[in-house]
Amino acid sequence: MNIFRLAGDMTHLASVLVLLLKIHTIKSCAGVSLKTQELYALVFATRYLDIFTGFVSVYNTTMKLIFLGSSFSIVWYIRRHRIVRRSYDKDQDTFRHYFLMLPCLLLALFIHEKFTFKEIMWTFSIYLEAVAILPQLVLLQRTRNIDNLTGQYVFLLGAYRALYILNWIYRYMTEPHYVHWITWIAGTVQTLLYADFFYYYFESWKNNARLQLPA
């Protein structure tokens, strides 16, 4: 554990808490992509298959349970909660997210570190996480006006991945034989997808204006 990973984990946790705060207290999921939330639920379900078979630390297990529970809770809220689901903009959230799953699975089958079921699923989750934000970004571009909590949620997600890149650089410089190029490439792609959002987020913050993404 180092400061960059801890900061990344806490930023990731903060993003989830911000989204749950919006959904639970305001009873609204306006501007939130169900497609992205379903992809994240799949990411965590396939990545944490070892949660009951392998133990690293209490911290590690706790974080896995939090991300698993929160991701499926958010999907349930948007799909099933009698009030929250009314604010879901199904007509705008039309990104065909299932088109992302098959390429990521095929990529995991052909490009991986070890050919075992858990390793393939873990690699699949890495590839899928890199592109899971796409439906959310497309939805924000379509709706244009973005409320503060949704904007903060997406910003924190991007910041979490950027901090993890610093964590990888730190570990590469301090730990012998620390090479995980699949994770590095996928994480870099994921961070680059946020670049445009970051620009407009900081512009809105600097000008004290409502966040808007170009169509």
UniProtKB/TrEMBL annotation:
It is found in: Endoplasmic reticulum membrane. The keyword Endoplasmic reticulum applies. It comes from the Eukaryota. Keywords: Endoplasmic reticulum, ER-Golgi transport, Membrane, Protein transport, Receptor, Transmembrane, Transmembrane helix, Transport. The chain crosses the membrane at residues 55-78, 98-115, 121-140, 152-170, 182-202. GO terms for biological process: protein retention in ER lumen; protein transport; vesicle-mediated transport. Pfam families: ER_lumen_recept. The keyword Transport applies. It is a multi-pass membrane protein. Belongs to the ERD2 family. This is ER lumen protein-retaining receptor.
